[in-house]
Amino acid sequence: MMRRVVGVLQIFLVIFGVVFVGSGDCFSSDEILALRAFREAIIEDPSMVLSNWNFLNGDPCNWSGISCSQTHDHVISLNLSNLSLNGFLNPALGKLAYLQKLVLHKNNLLGIIPKEIGMLKNLMVLDLGMNRLSGPIPREIGNLVKITKINLQSNGLIGHLPLELGKLGNLVELRVDRNKLQGNVPGSSGPAFTSKQHGLYASRGSASGFCRSTQLKSVDLSYNFFVGKIPQCLAHLPGSSFQGNCFQDKNYKQRHASQCGASHPAGSHAANVGNQDPKEGSKQQRKSQPAWLLPVEIVTGILAAIILLCAVLAAVKKCKGKCHVRIPWKKVRNGNEQIYMYIESDMLKDVTKLSKQELEVACEDFSNIIGSSPDTLIYKGNLKDGSEVAVISLCAKEDLWTCYLEVYFQREVADLARLNHENTGKLFGYCRESNPFSRMLVFEYASNGTLYEYLHFGEGCQLSWRRRMNIIVGIARGLRYLHTELDPPFAMSELNSSAVYLTENFSPKLVDFEIWNSILARLEKKSGSSGSEAALCGFTESLETFRQDVHDNIYGFGVLLLEIISGRPTYCKNRGHLVDWAKEYLELPEVMSYLADPELRHFKHDDIKVICEVVNLCIHSDPSKRPSMQVLCPMLENLIETSITSDLSDSSFSFISKIYSLTMKLRSAMFIIFISGCLLPTQNIVVSLVGAVCSDRETKALLNFKQDLVDSSDFLSDWVSKDCCKWNGVVCNTKTENTSVVQLNVQGFGLDGMLNPSLVQLENLNYLDLSSNTFSETSLPSFLGSLRNLRYLNLSRSFDSVENIHWLSNLSSLQYLDMSYIDLENASSNWFHAVTMIPSLLELHLRYCNLYPNFPSISYSNLTSLKVLDLSYTGLNSTLPEWFYNLTSLEKLDIHYNSFRGTLSEAIGNLVNLTNLDISSNDFEGEIPATLGNLCNLQSLDLSDNYFKGEIYFLENLSSCTGSSLRSLSLNGNQFSGPLPDQLGSFKNLEYLSFMSNSFSGLIPSSLGELSSLKVLNGFFNKLNGSVPESFGHLSKLRILRLAFNALEGIISEAHFANLTSLQELELHSLVFKLKPDWIPPFQLQVANLQACQLGPQFPKWLQTQKKH
């Protein structure tokens, strides 16, 4: 009795403590701590979906992916599927005691399934499918008595199916297909067994394993390594549930005997080890307790209660004072802690060491995240001396940190600390602590981010030609310092635009963050061997060799030069590798100008010639013939123009530069006419180069416009003469008797300040581009609605938000409107009504506009002339309105990355003029209507990452179109099933074909070998069987071939590779390679993933010829 009283007292105090502490600002509940631990185990969140998980002040019920109980006091659902999250499952998830749904489907989660999942007694749905989990299925899952659905498909799970799964009486669906599970499937039935269509029924007294699960309706065990017989109680399931295994039953397609090896059924005794009834064990234990134990327990319980009460009182006192909120960094240890090797006293004695507490304060409790990668988190902070810093935190677990990695980290710190040049990142110091485990680097902060962001995220217009030339010269000087002025030399681990950081004045800084990729690669490779001194010596020696190998940097520098002048990524699926695309222009002076970024307003042809010459030297196929930076840097310093005159903004420039300026003005005007097409008919525009003088009224209006602006880049420096027609960004016409301004283009001038209403004086203005500036307006000025002759209006990336855009309806002649990256949330449905009042509109771009979640409920739209519609990344959440299907003039439709739901209407077939259709990353479902095959003009079709299902019959209609122009087809991440249609081989212009992560089955059609233009074929994670057709050997342009994680079998011969001269990535699974010993492939692979393939008794010589991987 006393024991019960003590127990009740303890429970009361614990509950009181949790409730009381949880109500303050200093502590969190168990569920908050569990969510924090889960968040800390996520290394990469590319979609930033977890960015609103605010542990300092937030309500978890408002966090992404979380649903709470009606009383808002417990988490009942955690749903973060299809987000590419990279990390581990933290055992603390077991503390979410009220959780009913745990859905983490289709991410990149690693490691094992923690046994603590079995503590979630209320869990009904567990979906961890399509990740990279490994290890066995924990037997504790058998404790999930309320579970109805378990999905663990497409991971790397090993071991046996736990017998405890048979205890799950409410289980309806179980999917463990596409893993590496083995052994017998637990389940046997007694004489009373019967099988019915809507469930499994057995005599529970004599049944075991799955035959005890009376509600089980759907089971998928395919593509594992199960052996023995299929339980009779599961025999009613479709054959696809068992195929791809090693079962004795040959009615279902099983693996080849060579893949099954010597697997034997697990003995029944082994399967039941440790399955003693816990209640029985508890009874036995209770009987064996000595008499003196009871008073000891009573005393212990009273002491624990007193301690807990003191803790509560201390918390009250602390919360009454000033509460310092800190992140409780949790330290996790296991029984096999590594012994670290500390050599700081010698190697790091001259490097500043900072404590984690200092950095925590500097980085605002590590809440100011400015970047991330799979291996690092990057924070912005301010040190006590006022220095702005970037803190790079290594995402590694303490129990995986070996002495190798400790040596590596300390060598890197010492190596980075010796860098001291204006074009290399300065290391302020480092942080290395054991409790909590921390490894951080602290660099000077570069306020403009990376060069990659400017080139490829819509900011390239802010990089004028002069800026790009200065960046190139700065990078060259930095590399010359690293390669030739340091002893030993220092090589960047990966030289690309992401490793180039830009300061406030766009000066480049080389910062080597990519080294952490190598660190974690070592982590995978070296774990478990930390006691080997010989390995340690070889490891540290390899570091020195790696840092002195500068040849790869020279090649990377050449590629980086192309990236800077062209604005193109180093690789894209449509054009392939940048170097391959550029080769046809590099050596021909008459076409070199095609390498220039289209967003550039002007460039110098002589500069391009110099850069092309340097690029050709850098990318020489023989590394020994690539010149050093000692040679290349002077070439760039002496031969390219980096002064402000290269931007033609000096009004006193010579006569030649004036002619060049006029040429650039003509080029700009012609480019505008070209891209506008029917938007601005050329017969209505006469560009004035000679003799055109604008009116005093318009000149004054433009000067007033300039007066309220901050022009830090001096792009408006020539706005001083009386004739505004000669000013930068201004175009006039001479059609009327009085010359007037018809175009104003200040795109990417970097202007700040306010927009002056004087622009309304430009009464004949029909083209206005204010994009990619930083105006101080908090909202769009309504006076723009007075420019009634506008046909082209681009406001993107220049304003923060809009509250009212009714004035748009006044622009009755508008044909092009771009308001991308402007927050329209406060405009509510007003944005839509304003836009639909412009029947002349041909192009509408509202990318990243945060639109009102639902479309206004209207049945008709005036936008029947619309040709281009971009509503991507807008947050729309509704079914696709019917009026969408009436936009029969549409040529390009992009609504990807929203939350559109429902099915596609057969009316989609009305949009017969579509050339580009992208509806990826939504929540569409159902089957694709066959009428989609009516869109004979399609060049690009992306249906990926939805919930579409069924067979893809629409391709049969589409393939019958005369001269089909389809170039790109993406079906990834759906639930498509059935065979791949043979008609795929009819799309002769197809360059990109991807259907990964579906349920396509059957044979691969040999007709795919007829796709002579195909460059990418991506089909892994399906149910394809049979062999790889030899016709693939005809695909001479194929660069990427990925067919791993299917049920393919058979032989790969030389015929499969006969003409694959362009192949760079090869991913196959469980196939037998039969190639001649002296065979030399016609390709050079960069990636080879041949998991579970039989390559021969010896390491094949043909793989040894691959030097680029």
Account of the 3D structure:
The chain has 1109 residues and is an alpha/beta fold. Among the domains are: 213 residues, Leucine-rich repeat, LRR (right-handed beta-alpha superhelix), CATH 3.80.10; 269 residues, Transferase(Phosphotransferase), domain 1 (Orthogonal Bundle). Helix content is 23%, strand content 17%. It is globular. 38% of the residues are buried. The N terminus is likely disordered.
Computed over alpha carbons, the radius of gyration is 33 Å
Low-confidence stretches: 1-28, 191-204, 262-289, 314-345, 524-546, 645-691
How far the N terminus sits from the C terminus, by CA atoms, comes to 72 Å
Spatial strand arrangement across the major sheet: 29-30-32-34-35-36-37-38-40-42-44-46-48-50-53-55
How would you summarize this macromolecular structure in one to three sentences?
With 1109 residues, the chain is of the alpha/beta class. Strand 26 (571-572) and strand 27 form a beta hairpin.
Write the layout of secondary structure elements.
Elements: H1 2-22, H2 30-40, E1 42-44, E2 66-68, E3 75-79, E4 86-88, E5 101-103, E6 108-110, E7 125-127, E8 134-135, E9 149-151, E10 156-159, E11 173-175, E12 180-183, E13 187-188, E14 194-196, E15 199-201, E16 208-209, E17 218-220, E18 225-226, H3 257-260, H4 268-271, H5 278-287, H6 293-320, H7 344-347, H8 356-362, E19 369-372, E20 376-382, E21 388-394, H9 403-417, E22 427-434, E23 437-444, H10 451-456, H11 465-485, E24 500-502, E25 508-510, H12 515-526, H13 533-548, H14 551-566, E26 571-572, E27 576-577, H15 578-586, H16 605-618, H17 629-639, H18 655-676, H19 696-707, E28 709-710, E29 730-733, E30 740-745, E31 752-753, E32 767-769, E33 774-775, E34 792-794, E35 816-818, H20 830-836, E36 843-845, E37 868-870, E38 892-894, E39 901-902, E40 916-918, E41 923-927, E42 940-942, E43 947-950, H21 954-959, E44 968-970, E45 975-978, E46 992-994, E47 999-1002, E48 1016-1018, E49 1023-1026, E50 1040-1042, E51 1047-1048, E52 1051-1052, E53 1065-1067, E54 1072-1073, E55 1087-1089, H22 1101-1104
Parallel strand pairs: 3-5, 4-6, 5-7, 7-9, 8-10, 9-11, 10-12, 11-17, 12-18, 30-32, 31-33, 32-34, 34-35, 35-36, 36-37, 37-38, 38-40, 39-41, 40-42, 41-43, 42-44, 43-45, 44-46, 45-47, 46-48, 47-49, 48-50, 49-51, 50-53, 52-54, 53-55
Antiparallel strand pairs: 1-4, 2-3, 13-16, 14-15, 19-20, 20-21, 21-23, 22-23, 24-25, 26-27, 28-31, 29-30
Transmembrane segments: 292-316, 669-693
Keywords: Glycoprotein, Leucine-rich repeat, Membrane, Repeat, Signal, Transmembrane, Transmembrane helix
GO molecular function: ATP binding; protein serine/threonine kinase activity
